[in-house]
Structure formats: C-alpha cells, structure tokens
C-alpha cells in the first residue's frame, strides 16, 4: 500500500504558509482589537490561518504605541 508523502498534506502549518502579507498583518491587528484574546475568532478573520499561527505572529510584532492604543481602546467599548 503506497504511503502518502508529507508534501501531499497541507495542514496550514507548512513552510509555505508561514509568510505573512502586510494585508494579513493589518487584518490580524484589527481582529485582535475586535476579539481580544479569542484566537479562534481572530483566526476566522484570516482565511487559511490557524489560531496558533495568529498567536505566534502577534508575539513577533513590534508593539507600537498606535497598536496598543487601538487594542486598548476597543476593549473599553
């Protein structure tokens, strides 16, 4: 029985899917501002991205004052 090669499977976590576009980063920040730490909801705003990928990307982002204000102001509403 032939074995399925790893390259035939795409679980969203392979090397090709690790690159983030600028548009995805903007969507990520906006989704975090709206959904806070509900990573499943955040990931739903980013087709093809898993919640774990969103968390990891957020942790890699430089936290600018503008980004922090956006996130904190949305949690007060």
Labels describing this entry:
77 residues, mainly alpha, Arc Repressor Mutant, subunit A, 4 helices
- Assign an overall shape: globular
Percent of residues in helical segments?
A: 40-55%
Percentage of residues in strands: under 5%
CATH architecture: Orthogonal Bundle
Q: Output the radius of gyration.
A: 15 Å
Largest sheet: none
Uncertain segments = 4-13
C-alpha termini separation: 58 Å
Total number of distinct structural domains: 1
In DSSP terms (H or I, runs of 4 or more residues), the helix count works out at 4
Per CATH, the class reads: Mainly Alpha
What is the strand tally? 0
SS content category: mainly alpha
Average of pLDDT: 80
Would you give the CATH topology?
A: Arc Repressor Mutant, subunit A
Spell the H/E element sequence.
HHHH
Mind explaining what this structure looks like?
The protein is mostly helical. It has one domain (21-75): Arc Repressor Mutant, subunit A (Orthogonal Bundle). Helices cover 53% and strands 0% of the residues. The chain is built from four helices and no strands. It has helices at residues 22-35, 39-44, 51-60, 65-75. Mean pLDDT is 80; it is low at 4-13.
Quick overview:
This protein is 53% helix and 0% strand. By secondary structure, the protein is an all-alpha fold.
Please outline the helices and strands.
Layout: H1 22-35, H2 39-44, H3 51-60, H4 65-75
Helix pairs in contact: 1-4
